[in-house]
Amino acid sequence: MLPAAAPVPAPAPARAIHPPGAAVASGHAMATDAGLQILRAGGNAFDAAVAVSSTLSVVEPISSGLGGGGFFLMHDAKTGKDIFLDAREVSPESVTPKVYLDAHGALDPNRSQNGPWSAGIPGLPAALVELAGKYGRLPLKTTLAPAIRIAREGFPVYARLEKGYAQRRAVMERYPGTRAVYLADGDPPRVGETFRQPDLARTLELLADKGFDGFYRGDIADKLRRSVHDEGGQWTAAELAGYRVRERAPLRFRYHDWDITTAPPPSSGGVALAEILQIAAGWDLHELDPAHRVHILVEAMRRAYRDRTIYLGDPDFVDVPIERLMSPLYAAGLRATIHPDKATPSALLSAQPAPLEDDETTHFAIIDREGNRVSATQTVNLLYGSGLVAPGTGVLLNDEMDDFALKPGTPNAFGVMGFAANAPKPGKRMLSSMSPTFMESPDKVIALGAPGGSRIITEVLLGILGYDDGLSAQQVAALPRFHHQWWPDVISAEAGALDPSTVAALRAMGHAVNAGEPPWGNLQTVEWDRRSDTLSGGSDPRNPIGSAGVLLQP
């Protein structure tokens, strides 16, 4: 007798090879529209990234700009290569830790957060030139055109811009270049007014015409240097002309069915994400009750942020033990120290609320019809950076020097601290939490990232877990947030993120919980579902001016 024929398995649903179009998500609708405009004009994701980044630099001066820096995680569909473009600011040659100490040897936040000494050499303009010249297919004159037009013609002032200026007004109005821009009509920006930046438009035009030299040499560079000197700082022509972006290998690790590609040092985000997720992989988070799920994630966060403080810095200056920190064996060792029902005290300094990053830093995500993608985070650090606009340029300088460990063991503006690995040195890049990330499974391709200071890492972490739970892009962007960063020893949570019973259970385990914080962050994400061959975007509802757009192309 012949054996019964085995049933023929149904063929697996086909997976699309290329997306059906393109998707862009960013923190401002005008920037999203600029990216879609460039895609319609025949540009790829990298061209669109130039348009989105430069437009955000115009319409979100509270968050980022040409006077700041950023990280660009990119996937080149043609070669299959992932690239991490490091456009982080670098320390000026004149800087020593003593510059930031007062007469009593304490950290002077006025110097580290305001004015000329707080600013590192900007990296964002060099990144735009690199993106266009090496990865894009359109000239800078085309991709910078939307930003130039908006800078010249203006855009409507929105509530965050007005509120942020009110918070930083005392610092910003110290400087004549800042007053000329923000008090051009005689008073500060008000909601509904049109905010124009003609000097910034001219700077962007020079960047479009002359590339790198249009910003880092010649007239703009001279004005930047003169402005810093006039306010008591020290920049040199050589260090401006010598700035270079760094192309680095992204970090990769696996979580469940996802291949995660993310930011390497000088970002701390990728290492911390790998550490947290690999620690948490010892539990089935889907099966845990809400309190124990939060408890396990917080304990993993606590250990990763401790390692961030001790080990991480600019890899051009510091030997970062990445292999060890990202090893599953190392994660297993840390996992063994977690009690399933009790908090591990950080036992470093007394608990106090972690300072919030309100509206600083911004993120955008892009995927095009060829499968190229970009996840990029850019910043000037605190609200309106240093507050100093170089006269005649429209360029608002960053205050990224505060991200160094200027006084070892002393927390910065975000409540995080560092030691020798992140001490300032000439030409060194300060440690960052910016964590642009890709997720890829057999069925889905995702780009995501967020602003939020030291909370960026946990925003992206919760986004990854949201996708792993099967949520849509918009649901991921809207997820409620909680955070722990080793010091201060407290769980920070948005109001309503944790229900009262969960808070009570966490406190019974020994956790300090601040469950009523204002909303934070501004996560942006795009997703390509290869099975249904659909594109979608998610823009954080906490930011009403952000948007996600999909462009379907034949």
Separation, N- and C-terminal Cα atoms: 55 Å
Q: Using the alpha-carbon principal axes, give the shape.
A: globular
Oligomerization status of the protein chains: single chain
Q: What portion of the residues fall into strands of 2 or more residues?
A: 15-25%
State the major sheet: 7 strands, antiparallel
Instruction: Trace the largest sheet across and list its strands.
Output: 6-3-2-10-9-1-18
The pLDDT mean sits at 92
Rounded to the nearest angstrom, the radius of gyration is 23 Å
Overall structural class, as computed from helix and strand content, comes to alpha+beta
Q: How many H/I helices?
A: 19
Low-confidence parts: 1-6, 348-359
Residue share in helices?
Answer: 25-40%
Task: Give the beta-strand count.
Answer: 18
Structure description:
The chain has 554 residues and is an alpha+beta fold. It has helices at residues 29-40, 45-59, 109-113, 124-135, 140-143, 145-153, 159-172, 176-182, 198-210, 213-216, 218-230, 237-241, 269-280, 290-311, 322-325, 328-335, 456-468, 473-478, 500-508; strands at residues 21-26, 69-76, 81-87, 155-156, 194-195, 246-248, 251-255, 258-262, 362-367, 373-379, 437-440, 444-449, 482-483, 491-494, 513-517, 524-529, 534-539, 547-552. The chain has a seven-stranded antiparallel sheet, with helices on one face. A six-stranded antiparallel sheet has the order 7-8-11-12-16-17. Helix 6 (145-153) packs antiparallel against helix 9 and helix 13 crosses helix 17 (456-468). It is globular, with a radius of gyration of 23 Å. Mean pLDDT is 92; it is low at 1-6 and 348-359.
